[in-house]
Specification:
The structure is a single chain. The protein has about 325 residues and is mostly helical. The protein has a two-stranded antiparallel sheet with strand order 1-2. Helix 3 packs parallel to helix 5. About 35% of the residues are buried.
Length: about 325
């Protein structure tokens, strides 16, 4: 991800090549046209890679993998330190978790095989962007118990870190590993505060007040059921956005609200972007209904114009927010 942005740590798509074959998968609802997706990430070493080596008790291979990861991806970590690696990975995963939440994104299958040790998630399976903030929202049709519900994503990521710690036990003392796991809630709290401030384009002050504001703002989103993406769009830039928010179709939701009053007290850090032409219109979203509408044009008619236009508008909005640089 670009340092200084609020981008989520995830894989990037290099290409999608359609094969011309019909896709037959009876286990889940899927598009019927087959394609090969080529994606880019910082590594393909998953939490599950360490788990597999631990399962087969190949501790020498685990030690070699640990050395490889530290050498190539975490050079600031002491050589051979499993606890040091866990600490570094936990900090990155806290940032990823916080930014998933700030983006209103529901990852359908947030397990140990769908995230790597570089702090990136992928293989979403079914996914959703939230129309409004609902902690219990799920993406996967098979997630009947809400294991990967939107509001449980930080918990799921912490569980995955615990699984990684278990796989590293042959290489470190369990108490040392547990001590690093115990720091995750604080890592996440700080990362969440940072993610909310970045999405709103305002400066942070101190940890205690930042945390309180982030929680107050999310409570407002939940209680008001303001459209998730629209709220961040209308309020981007804090007090610099007053005219824009007053012209919003949801302006009534922002009046006499404590979270908005607190927002206006914060120092805007995006004065160079709040007048971007994107903010003269409406936010671009990618809700599930919109995806279905795009697919309705693609599948029977092979019409890509609407898809290309949607991607172009999303990229334009990313430019307005300052999120277009590749990681």
């Amino acid at each position: 991800m670009r340092e200084g942005s609020a981008a989520v740590g995830t894989s990037r798509t290099l290409s999608v090549v359609e094969t011309g074959e019909k896709l037959a998968r009876d286990d889940e609802p899927s598009p019927t046209r087959s394609a090969v997706l080529v994606r880019l990430s910082h590594s393909h070493i998953r939490f599950g890679t360490f788990q597999r080596l631990d399962f087969i008790a190949d501790h020498d291979a685990s030690a070699r993998l640990l050395d490889y990861v530290i050498t190539h991806f975490y050079p600031d970590v002491e050589a051979g330190s499993a606890s040091g690696l866990l600490a570094a990975v936990a900090q990155r995963m806290a940032v990823m978790a916080a930014r998933l939440m700030a983006a209103g994104f529901v990852h359908g299958v947030l397990n140990t095989d769908n995230m790597n040790i570089n702090g990136e998630c992928f293989d979403y399976g079914p996914w959703r962007f939230l129309p409004t903030l609902k902690p219990g929202a799920i993406a996967a049709y098979f997630d009947h118990g809400g294991l990967y519900a939107y509001g449980r994503q930080p918990e799921a990521i912490y569980w995955n870190l615990c699984a990684l710690a278990d796989a590293l036990k042959p290489l470190s003392h369990p108490k040392t590993l547990q001590a690093e796991l115990d720091r995750f809630p604080q890592y996440y709290e700080d990362a969440f505060s940072d993610a909310i401030h970045r999405r709103l384009g305002v400066a942070r002050r101190d940890a205690k007040r930042d945390t309180a504001f982030a929680q107050t703002f999310f409570t407002f989103l939940h209680e008001s059921q303001a459209p998730f993406e629209r709220a961040f769009f209308d309020l981007f830039g804090g007090r610099l956005s007053r005219e824009r928010r007053e012209q919003s179709p949801h302006a009534d939701l922002y009046r006499d609200v404590e979270a908005i009053a607190q927002l206006d007290e914060l120092e805007p850090i995006v004065a160079d972007r709040v007048d971007h032409e994107v903010f003269m219109g409406a936010p671009e979203t990618l809700l599930y209904k919109e995806v279905e509408e795009l697919w309705a044009e693609l599948e029977p008619h092979d019409r890509w114009d609407a898809f290309d236009a949607k991607i172009s508008r999303i990229r334009r909005m990313g430019d307005a927010y300052g999120l277009t640089a590749a990681h």
